[in-house]
Amino acid sequence: MNTAYRLDDVRHCYGDRCVVDVPALEIATGEILAIIGPSGAGKSTLLRLLDFLESPTDGAITYAGDVVDGDVPLAIRRDVTTVFQRPMLLRRSVAANVRIGRKLRGLDTKGGDTERWLERLGLTELADAPARTLSAGEAQRVAFARALIVEPSVLLLDEPTGNLDPYNVGLLEDIVRAENADRGTTVVLVTHDEFQARRIANRTALMASGSIVELADTEAFFTAPEDPRTAAFLEGDLLY
After folding, report:
1. 196-205 pLDDT per residue, tens
2. Whole-model pTM?
3. Domains parsed from the chain with CATH numbers
4. CB neighbours of 203 closer than 8 A, spacing ≥ 6?
């Protein structure tokens, strides 16, 4: 198994509060990993560590075989792209927001990639609209197009469909599956939607109080959980 990430004794704390405590975790290259859990479990903070936006307080994160610590090389940063729950868009047109990643990388922005992604995400008619005038769902689709047009090796998704109607939820899930199948994109998905995890993830993990309670193949995770806390969570009980 090729490994995209390996975490060894990773802890991340804010003052006296430790929000992530993961002794060991491996994420395979080309897999879709879903992370579910209650609010405040540390899921979004874990994504920030995987995107190198923050460095762990303790422990080591290995990416593609190299330990990443401190000053992360630009090439590695460009390998990983995150779509946040509340994306920040530039005060430019929708099309300009979509192509900005390619422009910053010095790649061609005059080809058909922008138009292709606008069409794929149902944004063609909004291409010239100011991005700041979009609805939350439209902005989310722009953020997806902006992330995927640069063809990242790793796509990190933080509640990516929370603002979308069922049709567009299905659209984005289809695109994630297609990018994973066609390009081998590694996907780590944080979601409160257990059904979404079951639909698209190869493996699913439960986080609670900063730790990974259980990690298993998705079907086994939902049908035969081994940890009683996982079973309780899936039955709707609160975890602290």
Report:
1. 999 999 999 9
2. 0.93
3. 3-234 (3.40.50.300)
4. 31, 32, 33, 34, 215, 216, 217, 218, 221
